Amino acid sequence: MEVKMITRRDFLRVSAGTAIGATLGSGILGEARAEPTAKVILIRNAEVLGRQDQVQEDVLKSMLDEAVKTLLGVNQPIEAWQKLFKSSDVVGIKSNIWARMPTPKGLERAIQRRLLDVGVLEKNIDIADWGVLNNPVFINATALVNVRPLRTHHWSGVGTCLKNYIQFVPNPSSYHDEGCSPLGKIWTYPIVKGKTRLNILSALTPQFYGRGAHFFDKRYVWPYKGLIVGTDPVAVDTVGAHLLQTKRISFFGEDRALDVPPIHIIVADKKYHLGVSDLSRIQVIKLGWMEEVLI
Amino acid sequence: MRILVFFVIMVWIFTIAGIIKGEEKGEMNPKVSLPIEMGGWKWDGKEIQYDSKTLFSFMDGAAELYLAYNFQHLTVRRFEKLNQPPIIVEFYEMASSEDAYGVYSFEHQDEAVGIGQGSEFGGGLLRFWKGKYFVSIYAEGEGTEVESTILMIGRAVANSIPITGPESKLIGLIPGRDLGLVDKSVRYLKSHVLLNQRFFIAHQNILNLNRKTEAVLAQYLRNEQRTQLLLIRYPNLKEAGEAYQNFMKIYLPDAGGKDRLKTEDRKWTFARHRKEFVLIVFGASTETDAEVLLKATEGKLSGT
Fold this sequence. Notes:
The complex is a heterodimer of chains A (295) and B (304).
Chain A: H1 8-13, H2 20-27, E1 38-44, H3 57-72, H4 77-84, E2 91-94, H5 105-118, E3 125-128, H6 136-139, E4 143-153, E5 157-159, H7 177-180, H8 183-186, E6 196-207, E7 226-230, H9 233-252, H10 263-270, E8 282-288
Parallel strand pairs in A: 1-8, 2-3, 2-4, 4-6
Antiparallel strand pairs in A: 1-7, 4-5, 6-7
Helix pairs in contact in A: 2-10, 3-4, 3-5, 4-5
Chain B: H1 2-28, E1 37-38, E2 41-50, H2 55-59, H3 63-68, E3 71-80, E4 87-94, H4 97-107, E5 118-122, E6 125-130, E7 133-139, H5 144-160, E8 187-189, H6 192-198, E9 214-222, E10 225-233, H7 237-251, E11 260-262, E12 268-274, E13 277-284, H8 287-301
Antiparallel strand pairs in B: 1-2, 2-3, 3-4, 4-7, 5-6, 6-7, 8-9, 9-10, 10-13, 11-12, 12-13
């Protein structure tokens, strides 16, 4: 499907204050068809961060278990993970090592622990960000877990799950044009296509606003203490982007524009058919701590 | 004899010209020495160098910003002090002072601290430009001591850059505060990707921005409404005309041959082509507001 030229006027046509994902999905590129839906789990726990935002690993592990159980509709964590992974799988955990806001190590360990519990061999599991193209586990992977922190991003508007696969191409910078709209294409390449079983956004301390190339600013980071979990990367990203947007509105009194609108999320839905970007078709199940949940 | 005198004079002229040119060349590449120790923070002795091919590995995908502004070279130094967060100094050499100003202007949002030719400090990040250099200094942590040291290092680095340089002349062609120019809103832009990051117009390059064009985007507060002025200079009249026609065709196809339209937000967009320039006003509350901004800009362009 050819994506039409998107201009500022398309944004003006839709009502103010609605999530970009939802508005674009229905206002610009909407298609008349039986639309699929998606389920996303938002889980929060007030105790997951200790002094100086130190991650409390046991709490985080229980949050992950609760989220995956609810997502898969079962009562036991292992049962849930067994619905996603086989003991024979070779699993790459695609993380994010950006120094200013890496994926929490405790979250990586919790995922790894559950994969081992399912029976996946230790040698068949690896955690990496840069270098996945040369990593034997990722090259031979039969399954992937996509996990990274939620934040704004200079080139793609938001740094979320779709963006996290940019290391699966040898020329990442060539995916930065047009608000990184081609990011969804990466998900169609054989090294990742159809392999992602779980997408996890760490929203423990998300960054809701930033500017420019450094795009880390501690003034715009807040202890949300949450995880956003789903099997649909577009839906997970849509919820993540919506959370950041509502926080900006709450903080600034307006939706202060990001460096770029996160167009790539809608394009991933409408052009690459990777999932659901329309908030109205995403079932967000909220669990745990509800204070200032925002969405 | 006359031929000999003429020959001697010509040799003298060319020799002097060569000396002057050589001095200018030397001034364009002055030796800049970064500090070794400041406020108890010591340089760890390592200096990492990046060129345009390796910058991406340092930038986690943000190198295009610097490459768009003709990035030449980056030097990164780390300063450490016991029980304090490390301080990182990023020293960017750009092709010209216009480029260094461009990088600075692109992200400018915080309060000035009087370092270099333009500076800001906020969220623990110091950014400034001087001559063809853009400098970014920040700590991997917080605290009043580390923040005051960041400023000390910044002043030392700025003082070690002996040559200043101009910002783009295009900046002088937009109206000033008398017409409501918003402080810290002026962006000097070199690509449509950068323009979209500051003010999204279209996901494709409908204004035909390229390495030979330059643009200024600025915000104006008119009747308590924010209005954007975009001024673009093309290499020649023809390219400006083509870009203008393309913009009108794609962005304002329903303008009915006029240079203005009230868009879906009930605000006015105006676009004009003057000489090698294209001028566009977005989001004006009234036609008069847009006219005032455009007339003031056109007045400045008439002197070019």
